[in-house]
Amino acid sequence: MYRNMIRKSFAVVVLMIAIGFICQTRICFSAEDIEGKANINTASAAQLALLPGVGDKLATEIINYRTAKGNFKTIEDIKKVSGIEDKKFEKMKNNIAVEGDTTIKSTKKAKGEKEPKQKEGK
Predict the structure, then answer these.
(1) Domain 2-106 adopts which CATH fold?
(2) 120: Cβ–Cβ under 8 A, 6 or more apart, which residues?
(3) Is the pTM here over 0.85, yes or no?
């Protein structure tokens, strides 16, 4: 009986740790946490993972798709990638392009990061 309780408690703790880890990763980026655009034809997996709702796994899927099928012609073509439907596309459409440089970057502050102090005087 006690073994069963210990197993259940352990499972709950592991689940809570996993949820906490996921929320600290790029999966939790939203459109408000990024600026710039990602060229979906040239962006790296790390850059694509910054897009709202993408993360590492889907970024890899995007790269695998463009490697197999060639460059995306329009931003809507990204919906051909497995895992990207209309709802996810709507979240990312303002941050993707098929031409130009990738300028996407995170504006989300790292935990414990402080604003730089302004120098007085000059």
Answers:
(1) DNA polymerase; domain 1 (1.10.150)
(2) none
(3) no
